[in-house]
Amino acid sequence: MNIALCTDNNYVMPCGITIISLLENNRDNKIVLHIVGMGLSDYSKGKLSDIIAQYKNASVFFYEMDEDFLKPYGFLLGNSKYLSFATYIRLFLGDLLPADVKKVLYLDSDIIIAKNLIELWNTDITGYSVAGIPDLGAFDPHVFETLGYPSKFEYVNAGVLLINLSYWREKNLIKVFLEFYKNKYSKLTMNDQDIINGTLYDSKLLLPIKFNVIDFYYLTKKRNVYQYQDDINEAIEDPVIIHFNSINKPWLRLSLHPLTNEFLKYKKMSPWAKVPLAWTNITRKQKIRYYKRKLLYALKLKEHKFIHLQKDAESQKYIIIK
To answer: pTM of this prediction?
Structure first.
């Protein structure tokens, strides 16, 4: 099982915790990790290597992509406060990884693997460029107009992608990606995710939501979900991959995500076990507003942004508490 992650020094801690959750829940699978770093220090590589060395079924290869390499392409990050240019690295995986790696599972570093991934890994993607999970939070007519394809092909979240590298190389998709960006860059809001959707819309395979349960699916108020409700319920009840893809990062004190404890469970197993949760750069007034909101939620005087979940001790599945 080939797994790819892209990170920089700022994201080493969450990346390491993603890796721990992966390896803890996939002890029966041979795992080869391909970690692409952007300016990744020897200290950071050592931290990640030490984690992986604790698992006999896992090995790791490091690759380096210099930010200067990306500069000629003029990549932008928009208004994102938690993305770096490392996000664009996944576009280059077909060129970066060895030719004998024909399929790879790409994972973002704000993810917790909660189950064995063998079902996902064994998905047949012959003839497909990529397999991904629908991002219903991004379903907006404007998105499809901007990217230039019909909404019937849907839109996937790029944080979990089962990539057919043979297809990418055969079709020279890096050239396609860069040409698309050159023509559309001023209109793109989701960076490389828009590039992947805009170019691979008719060659992708859609996967069950349980393989990438993004924050949107935990909201109390959701739109565009009716035809997916059964799939969403299954994913919430028994997620395989939990993706903290919004600003509710579980290593921040401000996180209100209902599954923050899943992240903290693996954090306790990590070299960062004693590192306190961080405050973002917010004002005292914003902190007060945060605690006020938590109090109102606790007193049930304000509807919570997220659904309330409880884990059943016997089945280990989640139950939605009304």
So the answer is: 0.93
**How many whole angstroms from its chain centre is CA 190?**
13
What's the pLDDT tens digit per position in 6-21? 999 999 999 999 999 9
Question: For the domain that residue 125 is a member of, what is the CATH number?
Answer: 3.90.550.10
Domain-located, residue 250? no
Longest dimension (CA), the chain: 58
Sign (positive or negative) of CA dihedral 80, 85, 87, 88: positive
> Is 228 a domain residue?
no
Distance of alpha carbon 201 from alpha carbon 108, whole angstroms: 20
Q: Which of 246, 216, 208, 207 is nearest to 110 (CA)?
A: 246
Question: How many structural domains are present in the chain?
Answer: 1
Query: What pLDDT is stored for residue 83 in this prediction?
Result: 66
The answer to whether position 276 is within a domain reads no
